[in-house]
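This follows on from our talk about sequence and fold. Go ahead and set the record down below:
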Amino acid sequence: MTIDSLENGEPKASEIRATGPAGEALATAPPMRGPLDLAVAHWPLLALAACAFMLGVAHAFETFGKLAPCLMCLKQREVYWLTGTVAAVAVVLSRTAWADKVRRPLILLLGVGFLYGAGLAAYHAGAEWKWWPGPAACAAGGAASTDDLIAMLKGAKVAAPSCEKAVWVFLGLSMAGWNALISLGLAVASVFAALRKPKAV
């Protein structure tokens, strides 16, 4: 360590600098990346994890909560399957020579997929609140159980759950309402990650 000057017999912290190998290592080391930079750099992986989590929650409600999905619920799941596939492709290609070329287009594609999912979920939530009618195919019956779905697979005629009735509400929002907010957040994060250049490791 070298000290440029003394003040009252004590070295100033700002005037103490490392020399030798340690100093050279600090000077050449890349800047530390914060949580935001890490999230941007690894957004495809985080998006894949988000899709898996949302699908897991949906299937948990169906399996353990005995809440069978309506037709619009299934459509919203399809969005996560599709965006999850795009995210998985982005993760794989991020390890190849094409990483720099495909990163932004694939992440923007994720943003479009999540935005579509947000719109679909918002439309579903609006139908539940009776702001507008849901699709004609969704107005068949009330809530169905998992046993009803099994019966349908066996050939029995069971009415599909109605898309216009919220069977689960938390803090004033149904599952479709929460999905709309989460999907919109994922869409915004995807666009941000696509437009922000990740810092080098």
